[in-house]
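Budget justification, computational time. The allocation requested in the original proposal was used primarily to generate structure tokens for proteins on the priority list. As evidence of use, we reproduce two of the resulting records. The first is shown immediately below.
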Amino acid sequence: MPKYLYQGEMGRISARTSAGPVVLPKGEEVEVTDKQHEALVGHAVFKALEDSSDLVITGVKKAKASGKGAGKGETDADASDQNTTGGDTASDQNTSGDADK
């Protein structure tokens, strides 16, 4: 389960979520449920606190791939590696000098 540690200026921060209230006292690590964490991930204030390092979130499980063919998609690195092996690019074609005839 995710753990939240608030280190900002206020004594505590809190939020009401669809999964129940979350109260984070300053300097105390608080364990929240996965549902509470999911509700807070999209919250603008909590996102800003995390980006500013006032809120540290640990123990988050990575989302599992689901659905047909999950995990078989291309990564950005795979996509950038394509078409770099030479062959049928425009600069490789018509190098015999006959192109203008």
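The second record produced under the same allocation is shown here.
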Amino acid sequence: MKKLLVSRVLLITYLKEGQVGIGTTSPNSDAVLDITSTTSGLLLPRLPFINTN
């Protein structure tokens, strides 16, 4: 019974498709993540430059 429940949850998770919207109530259907703002931007994590020579 437990294996059946786990397999159903995994199947539903696999079949579910959805978009995430931040700052919008209707995200673009072609985007995985849709960020909308008129006053702020997007700050990506800064990575240090490492010399590999």
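A brief technical remark on that second record: The two ends are 56 Å apart (CA to CA).
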